[in-house]
Structure to design on (1004 residues):
C-alpha cells in the first residue's frame, strides 16, 4: 500500500525525531514512564505508515460487507439501520419480567433479552434445596412452560427477536420458547432470536455449567442440527468473550479464547456430520466493551478479520455468511464502580461509542447502579438513552468504520489479531479448547491477567476515577431495586399446583423417552420439546440428563 | 477444649485442632500425641503421588467413595506446595472432593508444605497419627510428586500409589530418577486419552528393573472423572496390602518408617535447637560470609555449631 | 504470630463469578496465609464442615448473586451451632450497604463491597482473627 522508498524516509525521520524527543524527556518527562492500553499492552507516542507498512488493503481490510469483513459485516452498516438496542432484563417472577419487557418495547427497545435466575441457569427447580435464596434474584425464575407462557404473554413472538442468556439448559428453554410460540399460533420457522448456548465459557469464566464437556457439546450440535431444519432464523449460539473479559482477561485474550471456543464448536458440528455452511451462518459472537476506546475498536475489527480467515482457510467455508462474524456487545460490568455511581453513565457512553465504532450488531448498555444491585427502571432508561444519543446525535453512524486507516487503529488491529492467533495456536497444540480448559490453561492465563490488573489498581498505577482517586464521602445509595423475597415461596407453590394438575402419565412417558434418547445418539431436541409440552419441569428434564450425562467437575488453577 | 478426651469420642473439631497445633510445633500437642500414641496403628495408610495435573485429587475422591461403599471410614491429607517467598499457599484439593464434604465418615485436611525448613514429613506423619487415633480405617496422603520431601511423605506409607497420565511432559523417562521406584501400585489416569497404552507400556518397561521379585507393581488403567477402573485399582491396593502382611513386609516397612521418622525428628530437633528459625539466617549468613572470605573453613564451623548444641543439650 | 493464618475462601450459592474469590485467594496467599479454596456452589453446610476440618482462623465468603441475606447468616448460625465462634467470618461482593447491619448482627464480622483493596481485607483479617 505504501511506497517502499517513502517508508524508509519516514522511518529515518521517526528515528531522528525519537532521539530528539528522548533528550527533551530528560528535562520534561511524560506523565508516565510507560504508556499501556487498558489491557496493559504498550502504546507508542504516535503511529505512522511505518507501523502498518505490510498492510495490504484489499486482503487485510476489504470493503464493508466483504471478506475479511474487517470494516464490518454489512455494506451499509448503520446507514441502513441501527444496531439492535437490546436490554438484558428479567427478575423475580414471569409476571414482573413480562411487564418490564412491555415497558422496554414501548420505550423503543428493538429486541428482548431475557435474564434467568441462577437455579434456572443451572437446571434446578425453584423448590430444589440449592435454589434457596436464589430464586428470582439475578433474573426470572422459569420452572416450566407455564412460567414461560406468562413471560411472553401479550408479546407477539413473530414480531420480536428474543435473546436468551441460557447455556447448560439452552435446549430446554429454546424448546419452551417454541412451545409458547405454538400456542400463539406462530410456527417455529418464523422465530427470531438467540440462545447463548456457549458451555465452554461457562467452564472458563461464568460458572453456570451442568454436564461434562462431551455431552454438553453433543447437546449443542443437536441444537445446531435441529434449528437448521426447524428454526432456521434462530441464532443457535452466542460464542461469548464477554464473560472471559469480565473474569479479567486482556482484549487479545478475549478474542483468542473466544475464537478458540468457536473453533471447538465448529469442529464438533463437523464431526457430528453437519456441513459447515448449514450451521456457520447462524453462529454469533458476544463481546465486551471496556473503556479503552481505541483498543476496543481494534479488538472488534481484529476478531472479524481473524474469524473470516479461520472459517475460509481452516474450515473451507464457501458461504460468505459463514465467514462474517456478527456480534452482540455488552458494556463492561466490571468497569462500573459502586462509588459515585453517576460516573458510570459516562463510562457506559464511552463503551457504547467503542461498540458502535467497532461495528456491533446489537448492544446492551449497563445501568449505572449495576455495581450495587439490579438496575431500576429509571437507570435502565438512561442506559438505553445513551445508545439512542450515540445513534441519533453523534454522527458516527453515518459513515461505515470511520476509524479505518488510522495508523494506530490499524496497527492495534493487527497486533490484537496476532496475539489472539498466538493463543489459538497454543490451544491447538494442547489439543483444542475443551482440553485447554480441562487443564486449566485458559483459566490460569485469565487469572494472571486479572491479578495483575488488581495489583495495578491497588498501587495506583491504574486509576479508576472515584474508586482509587477523586474519592468523596458518600451516603449509601437509596432506592435500589429489591427482589421480593416471597418470590421463592410463590414459585414453590406454583410447582405444587402444576404437579397436581398436569397429566403426570404423559410427563413420565416423555421423560422416559428423553432418557432413552440421551443414552443413545438420536437428536434429543424433539424429546425435550415433548417433555416441555407435557409441562415437565426444567428440573425434571435436567435431572434426567444429569443422571445420564453426569456433572461437570470444575478445574481450578490458582 | 479437652482435645485428648474429645478426639477419642471422634470429635472432628478436636482432631482438626490437634493437627493445627502439631503443624505449628506446639509442645502441648506433642504431649497429647505421646499419651495417645498407643491408640494409633490401626489405619491403613496409602500415599498418592504423581506429577501435577495427573488428577490425583479426583482419583482420591473416587477411591474414598468406593471405600465408603464398603463401610470404611476415610481420612485424606492433601499436601500442596507453600510459596518460598511469602510462606503462603493455596490449598485447592477440596474442590475435587466436594461430594465427600458432608459425609461424616470422611475427614479431609489440606496442608501447606511450609517451606524449606523441613519437617513437613514429620508434620504429615503426625497428622496421620491424629487421624488414625480419630478412628479412620484408611488414610490417604496426597502430595505433588515434585520435591524430595513430598516423595518422602508417600514413601513412608503402607502402600504407595503412583498416578501417571498420558501426554504430560515427554515420557516416563523424564520423571526424576528415584521416583518411579517408590510406586507399589501404578494408575494411568485419563486412560481414555491418546497415548495411554504407551504410557502404561513405558511404566511396565521401567518395572522390569524392579528389584523385588515377589511383588511386581500392577499398572491399572483408570478414568477417574468417569469413575472407571476404580474398583480394580482399589482391589490392586488391597492385594498389595495382603502381600505386605503375608510376606512380613508390612512389619518390616513400618519398622523402617519408624526408624526414618525418629531420624527425621532428631534432625528437626537438632536443627531447631541450634539454628532456631529466628536466628537461622543470621547465623548462616555470619558463617558463610566468613567461609567465602576464607577466614574460616566450613568444617570448623560445623564443629562450632555442634559445640553449641552440646551446651544446649546439657 | 509465628504460624500462617488459615483462611477458607468459599463461594456460597449458585453464582459462578469467581474472579473476586480467586483474586482474594491469591492476595491472601501472597500475604503469607494458607488459603483453602473450595470452588463454586458451596452450601452453608459444606462451608462450615470444611472450615471445621481445616481448622481455619477465618471464613471469607464471596457472593454476587443477591442471595447473601439468606446464605451468609446461615453460615454464621451453623458456626454457632458447632460452637466454633472462634472462627472469624467475613463476606464480600455485590452487597448493598443497607444489608450490612443485618449481616453483622447475624455474625458476619465485616463485609467488603466492590472496590475494596485486597490489602484492606488482609489487614482486617490479621487484626481480627480470634485465636493467638
Amino acid at each position: 500500500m505504501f511506497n517502499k522508498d517513502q517508508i524508509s524516509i519516514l522511518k529515518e525521520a521517526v528515528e531522528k525525531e525519537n532521539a530528539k524527543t528522548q533528550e527533551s524527556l530528560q528535562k520534561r518527562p511524560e506523565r508516565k514512564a510507560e504508556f499501556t492500553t487498558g489491557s496493559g499492552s504498550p502504546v507508542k507516542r504516535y503511529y505512522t505508515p511505518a507501523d502498518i507498512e505490510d498492510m495490504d488493503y484489499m486482503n487485510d481490510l476489504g470493503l464493508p460487507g466483504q471478506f475479511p469483513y474487517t470494516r464490518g459485516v454489512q455494506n451499509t452498516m448503520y446507514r441502513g439501520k441501527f444496531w439492535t438496542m437490546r436490554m438484558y432484563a428479567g427478575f423475580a417472577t414471569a409476571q414482573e419480567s413480562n411487564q418490564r419487557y412491555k415497558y422496554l418495547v414501548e420505550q423503543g427497545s428493538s429486541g428482548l433479552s431475557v435474564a434467568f435466575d441462577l437455579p434456572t441457569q443451572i437446571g434446578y427447580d425453584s423448590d430444589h434445596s440449592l435454589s434457596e435464596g436464589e430464586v428470582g434474584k439475578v433474573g426470572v425464575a422459569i420452572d416450566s412452560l407455564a412460567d414461560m407462557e406468562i413471560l411472553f404473554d401479550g408479546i407477539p413472538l413473530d414480531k420480536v427477536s428474543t435473546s436468551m442468556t441460557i447455556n447448560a439448559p439452552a435446549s430446554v428453554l429454546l424448546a419452551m420458547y417454541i412451545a409458547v410460540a405454538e400456542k400463539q399460533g406462530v410456527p417455529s420457522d418464523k422465530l427470531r432470536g438467540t440462545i447463548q448456548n456457549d458451555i465452554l465459557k461457562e467452564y472458563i469464566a461464568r460458572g453456570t455449567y451442568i454436564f461434562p464437556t462431551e455431552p454438553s457439546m453433543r447437546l449443542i450440535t443437536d441444537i445446531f442440527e435441529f434449528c437448521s431444519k426447524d428454526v432456521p432464523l434462530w441464532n443457535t449460539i452466542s460464542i461469548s468473550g464477554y464473560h472471559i473479559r469480565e473474569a479479567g482477561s486482556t482484549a487479545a485474550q478475549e478474542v483468542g479464547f473466544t475464537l478458540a471456543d468457536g473453533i471447538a464448536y465448529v469442529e464438533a458440528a463437523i464431526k457430528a456430520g453437519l456441513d459447515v455452511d448449514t450451521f456457520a451462518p447462524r453462529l454469533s459472537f458476544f463481546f465486551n466493551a471496556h473503556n479503552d476506546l481505541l483498543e476496543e475498536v481494534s479488538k472488534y475489527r481484529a476478531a472479524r478479520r481473524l474469524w473470516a480467515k479461520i472459517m475460509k482457510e481452516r474450515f473451507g467455508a464457501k458461504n460468505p455468511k459463514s465467514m462474517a462474524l456478527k456480534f452482540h456487545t455488552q458494556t463492561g460490568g466490571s468497569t462500573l464502580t459502586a462509588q459515585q455511581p453517576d460516573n458510570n453513565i459516562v463510562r457506559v457512553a464511552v463503551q457504547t461509542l467503542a461498540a458502535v465504532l467497532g461495528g456491533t450488531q446489537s448492544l446492551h448498555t449497563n445501568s449505572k447502579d449495576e455495581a450495587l444491585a439490579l438496575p431500576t427502571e429509571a437507570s435502565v432508561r438512561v442506559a438505553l438513552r445513551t445508545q439512542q444519543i450515540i445513534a441519533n446525535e453523534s454522527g458516527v453512524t453515518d459513515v461505515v468504520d470511520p476509524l479505518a486507516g488510522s495508523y494506530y487503529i490499524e496497527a492495534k488491529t493487527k497486533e490484537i489479531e496476532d496475539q489472539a492467533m498466538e493463543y489459538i495456536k497454543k490451544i491447538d497444540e494442547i489439543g483444542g479448547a475443551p482440553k485447554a480448559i480441562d487443564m486449566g490453561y485458559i483459566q490460569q492465563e485469565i487469572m494472571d491477567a486479572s491479578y495483575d490488573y488488581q495489583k495495578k489498581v491497588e498501587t495506583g498505577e491504574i486509576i479508576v476515577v472515584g474508586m482509587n482517586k477523586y474519592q468523596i464521602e458518600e451516603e449509601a445509595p437509596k432506592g435500589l431495586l429489591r427482589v421480593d423475597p416471597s418470590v421463592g415461596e410463590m414459585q414453590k407453590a406454583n410447582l405444587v399446583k402444576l404437579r397436581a394438575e398436569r397429566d403426570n402419565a404423559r410427563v413420565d412417558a416423555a421423560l422416559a423417552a428423553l432418557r432413552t434418547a440421551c443414552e443413545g445418539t438420536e437428536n434429543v431436541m424433539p424429546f425435550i420439546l415433548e417433555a416441555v409440552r407435557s409441562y415437565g419441569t426444567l428440573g425434571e428434564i435436567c435431572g434426567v440428563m444429569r443422571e445420564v450425562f453426569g456433572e461437570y467437575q470444575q478445574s481450578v488453577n490458582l | 477444649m479437652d482435645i485428648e478426651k474429645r478426639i477419642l469420642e471422634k470429635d472432628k473439631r478436636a482432631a482438626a485442632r490437634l493437627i493445627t497445633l502439631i503443624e505449628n510445633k506446639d509442645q502441648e500437642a506433642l504431649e497429647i500425641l505421646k499419651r495417645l500414641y498407643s491408640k494409633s496403628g490401626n489405619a491403613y495408610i496409602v500415599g498418592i503421588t504423581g506429577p501435577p495435573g495427573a488428577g490425583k485429587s479426583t482419583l482420591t475422591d473416587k477411591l474414598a467413595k468406593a471405600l465408603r461403599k464398603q463401610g470404611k471410614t476415610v481420612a485424606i491429607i492433601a499436601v500442596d506446595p507453600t510459596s518460598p517467598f511469602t510462606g503462603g499457599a493455596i490449598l485447592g484439593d477440596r474442590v475435587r472432593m466436594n461430594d465427600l464434604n458432608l459425609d461424616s465418615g470422611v475427614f479431609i485436611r489440606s496442608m501447606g508444605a511450609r517451606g524449606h525448613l523441613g519437617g513437613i514429613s514429620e508434620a504429615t506423619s503426625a497428622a496421620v497419627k491424629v487421624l488414625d487415633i480419630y478412628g479412620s480405617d484408611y488414610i490417604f496422603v496426597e502430595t505433588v510428586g515434585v520435591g524430595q520431601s513430598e516423595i518422602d511423605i508417600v514413601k513412608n506409607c503402607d502402600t504407595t500409589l503412583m498416578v501417571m497420565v498420558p501426554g504430560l511432559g515427554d515420557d516416563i523417562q523424564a520423571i526424576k530418577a528415584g521416583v518411579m521406584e517408590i510406586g507399589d501400585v501404578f494408575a494411568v489416569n485419563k486412560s481414555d486419552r491418546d497415548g495411554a497404552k504407551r504410557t502404561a507400556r513405558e511404566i511396565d518397561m521401567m518395572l522390569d528393573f524392579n528389584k523385588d521379585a515377589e511383588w511386581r507393581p500392577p499398572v491399572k488403567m483408570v478414568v477417574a472423572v468417569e469413575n472407571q477402573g476404580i474398583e480394580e485399582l482399589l482391589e490392586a491396593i488391597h492385594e498389595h496390602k495382603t502381600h505386605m502382611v503375608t510376606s512380613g513386609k508390612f512389619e518390616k516397612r513400618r519398622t523402617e518408617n519408624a526408624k526414618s521418622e525418629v531420624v527425621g525428628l532428631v534432625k528437626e530437633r537438632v536443627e531447631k535447637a541450634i539454628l532456631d528459625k529466628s536466628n537461622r539466617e543470621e547465623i548462616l549468613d555470619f558463617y558463610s560470609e566468613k567461609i567465602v572470605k576464607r577466614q574460616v573453613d566450613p568444617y570448623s564451623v560445623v564443629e562450632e555449631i555442634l559445640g553449641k548444641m552440646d551446651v544446649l543439650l546439657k | 504470630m509465628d504460624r500462617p493464618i488459615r483462611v477458607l475462601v468459599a463461594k456460597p450459592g449458585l453464582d459462578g463469578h469467581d474472579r473476586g474469590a480467586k483474586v482474594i485467594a491469591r492476595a491472601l496467599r501472597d500475604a503469607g496465609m494458607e488459603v483453602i479454596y473450595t470452588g463454586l456452589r458451596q452450601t452453608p453446610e459444606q462451608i462450615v464442615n470444611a472450615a471445621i476440618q481445616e481448622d481455619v482462623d477465618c471464613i471469607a465468603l464471596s457472593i454476587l448473586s443477591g442471595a447473601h441475606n439468606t446464605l451468609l447468616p446461615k453460615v454464621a448460625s451453623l458456626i454457632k451451632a458447632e460452637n466454633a465462634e472462634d472462627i472469624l467470618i467475613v463476606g464480600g461482593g455485590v452487597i448493598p450497604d443497607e444489608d450490612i447491619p443485618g449481616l453483622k448482627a447475624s455474625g458476619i464480622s465485616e463485609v467488603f463491597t466492590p472496590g475494596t483493596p485486597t490489602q484492606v481485607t488482609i489487614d482486617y483479617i490479621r487484626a481480627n482473627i480470634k485465636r493467638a
Q: What stands out?
A: The CA atoms of residues 2 and 132 of chain C lie 10 Å apart. Chain C has one domain: 6-128. Chain C touches chain A at residues 13-19, 22-23, 25-27, 29, 37, 39-41, 43, 65-67, 69-71, 94, 96-98, 113-115, 117-119 (CB under 8 Å). Helices of chain C lie at 19-30, 44-54, 68-81, 100-106, 118-128.
